[in-house]
Prior knowledge:
Thiol Ester Dehydrase, Chain A; 8 strands; 5 helices; 6-stranded antiparallel sheet; two-stranded parallel ribbon; alpha+beta
Amino acid sequence: MAALSCHHPYNCPHPNLPPKGEGVHIENTMKTFKTLSEIPPCIGQEVSVSEWEDITQSQVNTFAESTKDLQWIHIDVERAKDGPFGGPIAHGFLTLSLLPRFFATAITIEGTRMGVNYGLNKVRFTSPVPVGSRLRARLKLLAAEPLEGNGLQMTWVFTIEREGSDRPVCIAELLMRRYV
Length: 180
């Protein structure tokens, strides 16, 4: 199979992505990189779209208990019905905690022994996430820099979408490192 280049009209090429503007509902578009050297040519490109993730009340309650963030807008279903969002909403940090899951369902990097999340540059929670929502992420590669020890530091922008909404719920810039 020939190496992929980034001249596809939808950005970084992927065989499951339609050309831009065709109005096709895009589902998961798993992108596989065979080596770290295949990643830098995709800088500035949307590389993949994750699978949908369901946000449940049980998940929100578990997150609330784990973090001790027990605000009623997250866990008190009856009170939240009369609140500003018409029902309970997920914690912003719960949404943020899904970044590794979104990445795992969108991108595979073969030939590496280890990956670590290095940090975040910028995070914005741009819209609430009502319990019962389905979320997915669009992943855009901002930067890819070599690291000592046969590694690569990547900066990914995750634009997290809620099904049925035109507005993203979160935009986060994640620094990730992978090592061969």
